[in-house]
């Protein structure tokens, strides 16, 4: 049976002027409107589509990709607010996603805001809606990760200890301030690394992989960029975390470890102006 709010591979059962009808099992036939139909979609074949309700609450299929499916978390922009009804979010489809007033918690929401929300199916109405009450939608399944496993990280808040995160769109995590020099904001998304899974299921995160596994390839990357730039780059341990992240795609902490390793190997020198290859330094 087709699942509402998710991608499904469905069989095409009929072709009509206004589109194709797809076999939705117990949900009945579901229309894929003509604007999404391509020449290779034939009766008897299959097509991957996303199922949701249109503005008249009828099930409809689309080949568009939303910014999040039911059971996931996403950072979405508020594009309209209707008092006592809720906020409307841009999730990449022609029909906006409703964040009901009752699901806004203590947030004071206005047009233009960005929010991390849980996307879920309202069992009473079969409508796909959003919620800022994230804790209610965390997966009950215990996370199964090993230390240093790469994971998808979505930042949704800050605390005295670190940045609160959604891990792989379903678990809770915390990136300690001591694990990153970057200033992060709600909606920032990146590949992080598991430091530890606690007994309650919460995940301690790293911004970068642990140990020399990360230092060695990063050091080689920095050396390559140095050589491409003629042997000199205006970066050292006084450079801002933002400029380091933009140039080398790593934290300032990882950058310092990498250039420290290169310095110990006598492959670079570190000056007030930046870093230089030994060869470049010798030609001064």
From TrEMBL:
It holds the Pfam family WHD_CvfB. Residues 220-276 form the Conserved virulence factor B-like winged helix domain. InterPro entries: CvfB_fam, CvfB_S1_st, CvfB_WH, NA-bd_OB-fold, WH-like_DNA-bd_sf. Gene3D superfamilies: Nucleic acid-binding proteins (2.40.50.140), Winged helix-like DNA-binding domain superfamily/Winged helix DNA-binding domain (1.10.10.10). It comes from the Bacteria. Residues 4-63 form the Conserved virulence factor B first S1 domain. Belongs to the CvfB family. This is GntR family transcriptional regulator.
